[in-house]
Amino acid sequence: MSNGKIFGKQGFFAKLGKRNLLIIGAVLLVGLAVYLNYIWFYDPMSSIGYGDNNMQDQYGDGQNSPTGGTVAESYFTSAQLSREKARDEALEVLQTVVASEDALQETKDTALADISRIALDMEQEANIETLVMAKGFENCVAVKSGDQISIIVESDGLLPSQVAQIKEIVFEETGIKPAGVKIIEKVTEA
After folding, report:
1. What is the second-level CATH architecture of the domain 9-187?
2. ∠ CA(157), CA(160), CA(161), 5° rounding?
3. Which of 41, 142, 177, 186 is the most buried (most CB within 10 A)?
4. What is the residue extent of each domain of the chain?
5. 61-74: per-residue pLDDT in tens?
């Protein structure tokens, strides 16, 4: 196949469109960053546990885990890794659909829209986590699903003003109204 048929006015990349190529490129870069982060920083034999329910408290009340972090840090790390793994699997399936020659164009368009939505969700979750931790919380995990979002924060008791701050951050970043926000408190053990 000549370069003209690939890149020309009627080639594959021309049919795909610049906007879609940029979206696919951005999603691939995000996926690569998540994958590299997973490879470099995830140790399956560490405090998270291997083959167990990663959310359970394996080291007692407030004790340090074998990696030097607290149990709460292990919980939040595990929750973030679980979220990233689920997203990576979904993106992989969607990218397979987009790359399939047998898929209908409508199906490919839907898959591209889903990829874009997932990328936006990932960005919004990261922004929310950063902003919530900037308000003084040690750990935070945000999980967005459509027009609902769950925010898990480490706290020794949430004040009404803190709940309001979290809901305001979520609304500013996502447009999700307070009724769609579920705040889950992971209590800090003393």
Report:
1. Orthogonal Bundle (1.10)
2. 110
3. 142
4. 9-187
5. 444 444 445 556 77
